[in-house]
């Protein structure tokens, strides 16, 4: 066999050399682009696994890799609860933010199976909450919870979930425990809560009232200034409410008495609680639409049903079930359905009006998921047996840890897609 040699070999090699370098350069460029491309699609689990913060032994590395499916269409509000043996991701001894009345383990709840479920939407996956990703997304931002004690329950759940990464410092501007601010210094992220159970202006007319739970004057066309005076500074606001509207209340519009609920006053028309609720929700969302300086995103978190069985809350009712319902075992009905319907209808109206003004509204729909969790309430495990408390069997609030932790799964899922959606809406608004 003969081999090429001499000058002829040198010429061929010199002609091929640029091609080799070009191919090598293209290969390096492609290899460089691929990681950059996938970095935008995946959250870096390796970096998170090496984070200095202590993590639960059940906090798997695959849970940290959350794929953002640009074309995914998923209704996360419809689904089933499925077994999840790795839960929970914190305990009542590792999180100091749990309100006493939701600290079910402390007060002797004997079962733990209610902690071993996760929400599985129909036809798609809802990733488990990733605290590091959430904090990165909230860098230099602020989030406020506005509403009743279930909203506070949600905020404390979020703090506990974030505790796997870092704890905040108390940055409150008031000593009132109903108005708290927490600062995540490393991320310049502020978390706040505004206790406003009716969302509108309220005055307590009688501490006792007909049912010993108070009598309240509600000004249904005036937003509560406790949150209204500060809400424009926030990037995200989550409104919730509903449970307090079953209390004895007197309704005012334009400072004129228009009726009441269970007030027992002579010559005053008794109106359903849904009347006051619809007016209040409408007032809140219209107020947001009329705030010129509010540039944030408004979430309406839908009603979380209570689960009293065997009687009303003050007549021996309790919640003693120890596992979730299947979706075909119960349905939304009665007052729960009415309150939910009001929220959705008022949300849609506000969203339509808001688009004309560049406002952004989102529906954080957790109602169906929570309807299926009668096992997640404190019941009698929110206090010591001999304590004198108003709500002895609590079937309204949620144990921590517990099923309410899934609300952060919902929230993170929605925030992941927010950038693209907000961009599209802004472009549409600018074209008008």
TrEMBL record:
UniProt-annotated location(s): Membrane
Parts of the chain that traverse the membrane: 20-38
Membrane topology: Single-pass membrane protein
The keyword Transmembrane helix is assigned to this record: yes
Gene Ontology terms, MF aspect: O-acetyltransferase activity
All residue ranges annotated as the Trichome birefringence-like C-terminal domain in the record: 126-414
One Pfam family matching this protein: PC-Esterase
Trichome birefringence-like N-terminal domain location: 74-125
GO cellular component terms given for this protein: Golgi apparatus; membrane
InterPro entries: TBL, TBL_C, TBL_N
Keywords, sorted A to Z: Membrane, Signal-anchor, Transmembrane, Transmembrane helix
Similarity comment: family membership: Belongs to the PC-esterase family. TBL subfamily.
Entry protein name: Trichome birefringence-like N-terminal domain-containing protein
Species this protein is from: Solanum pinnatisectum
Lineage per the UniProt record: Eukaryota, Viridiplantae, Streptophyta, Embryophyta, Tracheophyta
């Amino acid at each position: 066999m003969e081999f090429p040699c001499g000058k002829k070999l040198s010429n061929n090699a010199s002609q091929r050399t640029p091609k080799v370098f070009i191919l090598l350069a293209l290969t390096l460029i492609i290899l460089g682009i691929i990681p950059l491309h996938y970095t935008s699609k995946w959250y870096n689990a390796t970096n998170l696994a090496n984070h200095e913060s202590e993590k639960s032994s059940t906090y798997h590395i695959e849970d940290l890799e959350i794929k953002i499916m640009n074309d995914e269409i998923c209704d996360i509000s419809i689904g089933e609860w499925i077994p999840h043996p790795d839960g929970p991701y914190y305990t009542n001894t590792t999180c100091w933010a749990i309100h006493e009345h939701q600290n079910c383990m402390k007060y002797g709840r004997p079962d733990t199976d209610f902690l071993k479920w996760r929400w599985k939407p129909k036809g798609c996956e809802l990733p488990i909450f990733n605290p590091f990703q959430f904090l990165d997304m909230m860098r230099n931002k602020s989030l406020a919870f506005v509403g009743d004690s279930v909203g506070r329950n949600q905020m404390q759940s979020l703090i506990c979930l974030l505790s796997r990464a870092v704890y905040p410092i108390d940055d409150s501007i008031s000593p009132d425990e109903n108005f708290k601010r927490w600062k995540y210094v490393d991320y310049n992220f502020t978390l706040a809560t505004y206790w406003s159970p009716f969302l509108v202006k309220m005055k307590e007319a009688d501490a006792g009232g007909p049912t010993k739970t108070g009598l309240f004057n509600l000004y249904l066309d005036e937003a509560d200034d406790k949150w209204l005076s500060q809400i424009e500074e926030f990037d995200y606001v989550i409104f919730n409410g509903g449970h307090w509207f079953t209390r004895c209340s007197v309704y005012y519009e334009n400072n004129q008495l228009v009726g009441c609920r269970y007030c027992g006053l002579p010559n005053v028309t008794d109106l359903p609680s849904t009347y006051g609720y619809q007016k209040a929700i409408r007032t809140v969302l219209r107020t947001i639409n009329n705030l010129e300086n509010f540039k944030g995103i408004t979430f309406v978190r839908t009603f979380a049903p209570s689960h009293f069985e065997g009687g009303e809350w003050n007549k021996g009712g309790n919640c003693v079930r120890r596992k979730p319902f299947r979706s075909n075992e119960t349905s939304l009905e009665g007052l729960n359905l009415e309150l939910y319907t009001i929220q959705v209808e008022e949300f849609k109206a506000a969203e339509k009006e808001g688009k004309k003004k560049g406002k952004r509204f989102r529906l954080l729909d957790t109602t169906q998921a929570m309807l299926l969790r009668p096992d997640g309430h404190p019941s009698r495990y929110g206090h010591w047996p001999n304590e004198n408390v108003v709500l002895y069997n609590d079937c309204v609030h949620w144990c921590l840890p517990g099923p309410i932790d899934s609300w952060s799964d919902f929230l993170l899922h929605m925030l992941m897609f927010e950038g693209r959606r907000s961009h599209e809406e802004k472009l549409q608004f600018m074209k008008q």
